[in-house]
Specification:
The chain is an alpha+beta fold. It has helices at 4-18, 35-45, 50-70, 75-98, 108-130, 139-219, 230-256, 270-287, 307-324, 382-393; strands spanning 22-23, 32-33, 291-298, 328-338, 341-348, 397-403, 407-415. 59% of the residues lie in helices and 11% in strands.
């Protein structure tokens, strides 16, 4: 607290108010109240002093006497009735301060014993002042006192621990979500880099073919009209392709540098990332006016080898499954890790793919999806990326089954080292 004065007043006011929620188990002026719980929690949460204890005890005495006077009780009787209760709070707070229980909270069992002993001793003091100590010789009353002290002490410690650690737990959960979102973004970038690498290879092949054509024309240029100047033109095209290849390589290397070689220490597990991705896909589908549930059947453990590849595959497959569903439907994701390999299966209840198009779906540019807002077709890169990752990076295979009106099933399998399982 910024002001110790405000701290004293806050603790006193809260304790006074909660002190009016009570039971009288012995049918005397002795009471069990929630004020003790509030008082104990506040003394654990804030660094208090004997001044806080004194102000709280005095506030309780004044407030209860004021209530009694409003009920037409004589002042001396009101003072006699409520002074022992005020002493209880003074004794309770003083013992907690002198026992330094706030410094023992890293040992919950020890702290609980201190709270329990403090409650019992303070109750005994109050009974002594009231002249009711002999009542403790009744087994029922002794059991009631001990049971109440145990319940209040456990409640005080539980609320304190919750107030202390819940913000930390919430912060860790938010941090985990941020890391998960960052990793998924990295996996998307990784997929683009891998496809760019494939395109670089395609450019390399085109350059090789162009250079081969140049060599052929150079050998047979006598058969061509001189004004065509074919060797020079083909050579110019070859040089242009070579420059494009160098640009591809520069872009690829620059993007690759954006992906760290190692993941953060607090990175979520692959299973947690899978659930996070599925939740993200459901939210994305809902934002597009679709009601889609992603059911998940996951192995107990999923290796983190090829994590970016794994997440890229899931993201592309789930995104395509959402695109294939019109308004509402279901996607079933299964990830099975068996001896030496990982199997991924994504089944949707979408529109399905015509049989004649099944051979074309992995070709770059093939798409049946479009943006209803702009009317533009999708780029058709997603499944091409999937095929490239599966076949050329993961050395696995991919299988697709689809029926118009019934949905699509895509199955992927790729090897994983046994020591990673």
């Amino acid at each position: 607290m910024k002001s110790s004065k405000h701290l004293h007043i806050m603790i006193a006011v809260i304790t006074v108010l909660f002190g009016e929620i009570y039971l009288r188990p012995f049918y005397t002026d002795f009471r069990f109240s929630l004020g003790v719980c509030a008082y104990g929690i506040l003394l654990l949460l804030y660094d208090s002093s004997l001044k806080t204890v004194a102000i709280t005890g005095l506030s309780i005495l004044i407030f209860r006497i004021w209530l009694a006077l409003n009920l037409s009780l004589p002042f001396d009787l009101a003072l006699f009735t409520h002074l022992p209760g005020a002493f209880y709070y003074v004794c309770y707070g003083s013992i907690l301060l002198f026992s330094k229980v706030r410094y023992r909270l890293n040992h919950p069992l020890l702290a609980l014993m201190v709270l329990l002993s403090t409650d019992v001793l303070s109750n005994i003091l109050e009974l002594l002042i009231r002249g009711q100590f002999h009542d403790l010789f009744s087994s029922f009353k002794l059991q009631a006192l001990l049971l109440t002290a145990i319940i209040r002490s456990i409640l005080i410690l539980a609320v304190y621990l919750l107030a202390r650690f819940y913000p930390t737990m919430f912060q860790k959960e938010e941090e985990k979500k941020k890391i998960s979102s960052w990793i998924l973004s990295q996996s998307k970038l990784y997929a683009e880099i891998m496809f760019l690498k494939k395109s670089e290879g395609d450019v390399e092949k085109a350059m090789t073919k162009a250079h081969g054509l140049y060599t052929y024309i150079q050998k047979n240029k006598a058969a061509l009209p001189a004004e065509w100047d074919m060797p020079r033109k083909v050579l110019s095209i070859t040089r242009d392709i070579h420059e494009i290849k160098k640009d591809f390589r520069r872009i690829n290397e620059a993007l690759r540098d954006l992906i760290p070689d190692s993941l953060p220490e607090s990175v979520p597990t692959p299973i947690e990332l899978t659930h996070f991705l599925c939740d993200d896909i459901e939210v994305w589908a809902q934002s597009n006016g679709k009601h889609i549930k992603v059911d998940r059947k996951l192995s107990p453990t999923i290796p983190d080898r090829h994590l970016y590849d794994y997440l890229s595959l899931l993201n592309n497959l789930l995104t395509n499954a959402v695109d294939a569903i019109d308004q509402a439907g279901e996607i079933i994701l299964e990830v099975l890790v068996a001896t030496g390999h990982c199997q991924i299966s994504v089944k949707d209840t979408g529109c399905g793919i015509p049989e004649e198009d099944l051979k074309l779906i992995f070709e770059p540019g093939y798409s049946t999806h479009y943006d209803p807002g702009t009317g533009q077709m999708s780029t058709g890169i997603g499944l091409a990326q999937v095929q490239y990752l599966v076949k050329h990076v993961l050395k696995g295979h991919i299988k697709i089954e689809s029926k118009v009106g019934s949905g699509t099933l895509i199955q992927i399998a790729y090897p994983i080292p046994l020591h990673d399982q």
